adenosine deaminase
Amino acid sequence: MAATGSQSLKCKVELHNHLDGALRAETVIDLARSKGIELPVDNARQFKEFVSCANETDRSLKKFLEPFAVFIPVISGDPHALRRCAIEFCEDQANQGVLYTEARYAPGLLTSGTSNNDATEGDKLTSEQVLLTIVDGLEEGCRRYGIKVKSILCCLRGCPDSATETIELCKKYHRKGVVGIDIEGNELEDSIKPGDEFCKAFQEAKRYGIHRTVHAGEAGTAENIRQSLDWLSAERIGHGYQLVEDESLLERVKKEQIHLEVCPTSSILTGSCSSFDNHPAKRLIISYLDPKLSPFVNYLSLLKLRHYFGSSTRFINEGLNFSINSDDSLCCNSGVADEYKLVYNKWGYGASVLTRATFNAARSSFLPEEEKQQLINDLEEIYGMKVIINYKATDIKLS
């Protein structure tokens, strides 16, 4: 994803972005050349096409994840590459207009790589060394580009040992750059079982005050979302599109204000959703139309916007707590600013929805409360308003 200029207005919050899926194609090509690693293509444009599933007719999460096996070895086990990618991540996020983001990654996946055309094993780092290197790079990037980035550490479905290692790292570096724990991987192939190592790790995280998000209801069913809430005490759900299959669960998510990390483009490329037109997230964002104007009409007025988008903003808010995210910007060839444009242009939702998504993300971030309140205050100043979002009452109050 090319830089778009360092002076972009920073007014967005992104919660679901995989650091290792947000590498610059140019950086992957450059590092591969310097290490003598042969890639399937040899320039950035072709590489972006290679890793994207946009032209695939048979789309699936498994297919979407396949290119990671090509570019992850280029950066793994290399502290200089990891630090460079972390700094570039911050610059790219700043250029996308992001004020705060949570970068997620699995340290254990980045411990070793390849060093030549024969793909022999190169230097190996420990998971802790990977974490410290990335956190150092993120801190440097934040200083350079005026944003804030924290880390969410990922366990790997199908690898129970990763749960034990990840929770120990989360505990050791809680509030030292790390704010949460996650589980990533293919739901269809590797399910969570009651009392398994993942459940133990997440319950330990809850006891320790570490925040929890889980990839669920993307390729898998709504039942995976229920299990994430019941067994893993998830506070946020990554994707969660299959929530619309289960009305009782939908009501529960609404009542408990579980945050939904919506990633529009990746949901199509992974085959989780069939099209933008019939995307379940449209219901999750805005559901029932009503003749009564939403309080967001006042939102628009306060923002001094000059247009109003008709029936799409005439709604009663279903009370769902969601944000808009890019997921894997390299593989999706789409940053969070592009995702906001997609929601605006393809789904027809105006600035009210986009602004709400930003404040939802800020309030559902895993920052410590004092830092979270400061983030909200900063956003209120940027947007020129005082916003009180009362989720329990499912309304918006402005003052």
Q: What stands out?
A: Confidence is low (pLDDT under 50) at residues 1-6, 116-121, 287-317, 390-399. Residues 127-145 form the longest helix (19 residues). The chain has 17 helices and 14 strands. The radius of gyration is 20 Å.
